[in-house]
Amino acid sequence: MQLQMPVHLGAAYTSPSQRARVVSEGWGADNLYCPNCVSPALSPAAPNMEAIDFTCPDCESPFQLKSLSRPFAARIVDAAYRAMRQAIVENRTPNLVVLHYDPACWEVKNLVLVPRFVFSLSLLERRKPLGPTARRRGWVGCNIMLANVPPDARIPIVADGIATSPTWVRQQYARLRPLEKLGHEARGWRLDVLNVVRAIGREEFSLADVYARSAELARLHPQNLHIHDKIRQQLQRLRDLGFVKFVGRGNYRLV
């Protein structure tokens, strides 16, 4: 994988955002590969194809590329809230590839893959409608809450300027693929509990440790009135998926 970006592609553009888009998409066309199959390249999507920048020529998996000139933050600006919410509910979200580059030298520093089947409504934040003087007044956008994606579901393709092995990336993607069979609500619960477990910060943890953070889950799932019951259920599901191991007497270990 070549980490130097083709900056010459943006020479004709004066807008920094347009230049970044053209350069990053040009880089992606030459360097991105499919994590879902063995295809060594992705094909640029048709012009004006909403929310999709690349597709796999072999398995047809869709991808959206977001490029940032600063390190990853808690949230990433995305498109219309209603459209993104509907895409999550209907399991139509593309794989998200988030690229962090150094604008001084146009080199890729970090590249993270969020598989399409880990998206849930917990990752979506509604932004305020545009004001009455805006050209698209009343339009409501959204943010993708990258901080709400468990580390297990953020697959590093490039980390601190070093590319990881495509074989390893595909293994991590395959490990998460069982989530594809779940509806968005069940998927959200599973990943939200995993995020809470990760936030405890210890390899071994107890059921009481997770209960202590039940307010976070209640905020994400306000319709559920039996949070502790749901926590126990989701820990069993995470055990079945191989993310945690039950070690007895209400104690668990991260795998």
> Taking strands numbered 1, 2, ... along the chain, how are they ordered across the largest sheet?
1-2-3-5-6-9-10
* Structural domains: how many: 2
Which residues form runs of ≥5 with pLDDT under 50?
Answer: none
* Averaged pLDDT: 94
Can you give me a brief rundown of this structure?
By secondary structure, this protein is an alpha+beta fold.
Structural features, described:
This protein has 255 residues and is of the alpha+beta class. It folds into two domains: 7-71 and 93-117 and 149-179, PvuII Endonuclease, Chain A (3-Layer(aba) Sandwich), CATH 3.40.210; 184-254, Arc Repressor Mutant, subunit A (Orthogonal Bundle), CATH 1.10.10.10. The chain contains seven helices and 13 strands. The protein has helices spanning 16-31, 81-89, 166-176, 184-200, 207-211, 214-220, 227-241, and strands at 43-44, 54-55, 62-68, 75-80, 95-102, 107-114, 124-126, 141-145, 155-159, 162-163, 204-206, 244-248, 251-254. Helix 4 packs across helix 7. It is globular and about 65 Å long. The relative contact order is 0.11.
What's the structural blueprint in terms of helices and strands?
Blueprint: H1 16-31, E1 43-44, E2 54-55, E3 62-68, E4 75-80, H2 81-89, E5 95-102, E6 107-114, E7 124-126, E8 141-145, E9 155-159, E10 162-163, H3 166-176, H4 184-200, E11 204-206, H5 207-211, H6 214-220, H7 227-241, E12 244-248, E13 251-254
Parallel strand pairs: 3-5
Antiparallel strand pairs: 1-2, 2-3, 4-8, 5-6, 6-9, 7-8, 9-10, 11-13, 12-13
Provide key terms for this protein:
Arc Repressor Mutant, subunit A; alpha+beta; PvuII Endonuclease, Chain A; 3-stranded antiparallel sheet; globular
